[in-house]
Amino acid sequence: VVPWFSGQNAVLAPPEDASAMAVVLGQFLRALHQPSPGDAPHNPRRGVPLAARDEAVRTRLDQVKHLVDRSAVLALWERLVATPPWSRPPVWIHGDLHPRNLIVEGGRLSAVIDFGDLSAGDPATDLAFAWMLPEAARSRLFASAHEETNPIDDNTRSRARGWALTLGLAYVANSLDDEPMGALGLATIDAALTDRA
Q1: For the whole prediction, is pTM greater than 0.70?
Q2: Greatest distance between any 2 Cα atoms in the chain
Q3: What is the distance between the alpha carbons of residues 181 and 171, in angstroms, rounded to a whole number?
Q4: Is 82 exposed, middle or buried (0-12, 13-18, 19+ CB in 10 A)?
Q5: pLDDT tens per residue, range 60-103
Q6: CA dihedral 31, 37, 38, 42 (to 10 degrees)
Q7: Residue 107 backbone phi and psi in degrees, to 5
Q8: Which residue, 103, 92, 79, is CA-closest to 15?
Q9: Mapped to the 3 state alphabet, what secondary structure does 121-184 carry?
Q10: Which of 124, 131, 125 has its CA nearest to residue 152?
Q11: What tens digit of pLDDT does each residue of 100-137 get?
């Protein structure tokens, strides 16, 4: 049983200040990404090493190749999938963090919803949200989510970028009847491809 949160999802009602939302969301992730107990649920599609998503990425890329730069996506994916996997103890992850699962009220982030994919794994899955933000807000999310006991190092950031490709392709491939999610997927892929950091 969860409380009712008034407002609208962030696809329908984007926050007035994306950077301010990034800070609040980073604080939420810092609080969430704590070591999980041994009996925490495992999700075979979230929080896993990027290599475990390779087949799905290639399949979806073939499905949407007319909408994206296939060679550029594949080149970046092959570089990112080689990033060393998460080697620390698994942490709690939301697993399905995107604007439809954020509630905005009065122009500000007020809630994170839909914990159906809550599981233990690599926090990079959730940090992929950074590429769903304007570029100027991306560093604010990472800075806010970072903590000394669970630092966001270069490898974590690279895996998060890989997850941005993974999720972006999923949104595009599965959005025939959901134009806003398809647009989000394309924007996320483009942001991952053009990231200058």
Answers
A1: yes
A2: 46
A3: 6
A4: exposed
A5: 999 999 999 999 999 999 999 999 999 999 999 999 999 999 99
A6: -40
A7: 80, 5
A8: 103
A9: ECCHHHHHHHHHCCHHHHHHHHHHHCECCECCCHHHHHHHHHHHHHHHHHHHHCCCCCHHHHHH
A10: 124
A11: 999 999 999 999 999 999 999 999 999 999 999 999 99
